[in-house]
Amino acid sequence: MASHRRPKQPSRARVTVLTTAAAAAVVLSAQGANAAPSEKPTKDEVKSKVDKLYEEAEQATEKYNGAKEKQEKLQKEISTIQDNVARGQGDLNELRDSMGLAAAAQYRTGSIDSSLQLFLSADPDDYLDKASTLDQLSGQQVEALKKIQEKQRELAQERAEASDKLKDLASTRTELGKKKKEVQAKLAEAQKLLNTLTAKEKAALAEADARASRSASARVDLGNETSASGRAAAAFSAAQSRIGSPYVYGATGPSSFDCSGLTSWAYAQAGVSIPRTSQAQANAGTRIYSQSDLQVGDLVIFYGDQHHVGLYAGNGQVLHAPRTGTVVRYESIGNMPFQFGVRI
Q: Can you tell me the distance from the alpha carbon of 319 to that of 243, in angstroms, rounded to the nearest whole number?
């Protein structure tokens, strides 16, 4: 006959633990259900973050421009050196050939001397270092060997210089690639933020931007300043003809520009060559620290690291290529931290 035993009762401690755990689970579940979702950033917050990213992208852009300019300069210098080496090698070959013809003539007449034999089988540098051997050469032969020696030294120096510049070029290309990636990453991050906005919010930002541009343009027209010098006026006029052209990092015109690309292109149209980057343009002329002394066409340098530049348009306005997503336009000089002007 089966025994009927009462089931063992859980201990009081175990019941307490289970009850507490269940209560905690209920509380956490309720909290999870009632938790507010993370708040979406406002339009103004997104704009502030995007503007900061665009500023950082422009900083990287000017460094990219500097590396690109250096690369182009090195390529030209290397090409010139290589051309010089090729011509020098041809000259050296001619000198050696002439010495060889002289040796052949002496050999045919049976009069080739030991000194010329030594030259044909050894390094001329060692040869000329031996005074006793020099005594055995004619004046014409000595002069020819000295020319060969000098040409060899020139070629060695030029080849060494070319080698150093090739190493510098490789380093510059690496830097160029890094800066390009940095710019692209900043722009992609900015675009990702902009994509979080609704169509209505994007339209509101675009309208505010356009309104500010129209206001700046009207102030330029009201100012009607004509205090620019001949070339500065011509540069400013050239830049005005590009109003509406899109900002593209690394671009130097004529259909798209970055900030220093616009100013360097504009002055080139006036027959004046200025450096490519904003930092270099900051040292391209006489600095003007008072905004009241600026004249139309003067360069205007912004930010402490001088990573942005435009052209003074008069009446407190600047004509520039602002940033990605905008076009060449007028803007109040007070919208950015003014550093100084530069009169070319």
A: 8
Between helix 114-121 and helix 43-109 the angle, nearest 10°, is 150
Neighbours of 69 (CB within 10 A): 15
Element (DSSP H or E) covering residue 299: strand 299-302
Average pLDDT over residues 87-95: 83
Q: How far apart are the first and last CA of the chain?
A: 116
Tell me how crowded residue 339 is: count the other CB atoms within 10 A of its CB. 18
Q: Which residues pair with 343 in a beta bridge?
A: 286
Token representation of residue 41: 């950033």
Place of tokens 């020696």: 149
Number of CB atoms found within 10 A of residue 321's CB = 31
Which residues sit opposite 327 in a β-bridge? 246
- DSSP character for 166? H
The pLDDT value given to residue 182: 92
| CA-to-CA dists, residue 203 to 208, 248, 327, 344, angstroms | 9, 22, 16, 39
- The stretch 37-54 carries a mean pLDDT of 84
Known catalytic residues are 259, 308, 320
**Residue of 330, 135, 132, 133 whose CA lies nearest to 240:** 330
Residue 26, pLDDT score: 43
CA distance 165 to 119: 34
**The dihedral formed by the CA atoms of 183, 186, 188 and 189, expressed in degrees to the nearest 10:** 170
CA-atom Rg of the chain in angstroms: 37
For 135-189, how does the pLDDT look when each residue is reduced to its tens digit (9 = 90+)? 555 666 677 777 788 878 888 888 888 899 899 999 999 999 999 999 999 999 9
Report, as an integer, the average pLDDT of 223-227: 58
pLDDT-derived band at 102 (thresholds 50, 70, 90) equals low
Please tell me the distance from the alpha carbon of residue 154 to that of residue 144, in angstroms, as a whole number.
15
Give the residue ranges of DSSP H helices in the chain: 12-34, 43-109, 114-121, 124-128, 131-134, 139-194, 199-223, 230-240, 259-269, 278-281
Q: Which residue would you say has higher pLDDT here, 191 or 38?
A: 191
In DSSP notation, 75-98 reads HHHHHHHHHHHHHHHHHHHHHHHH
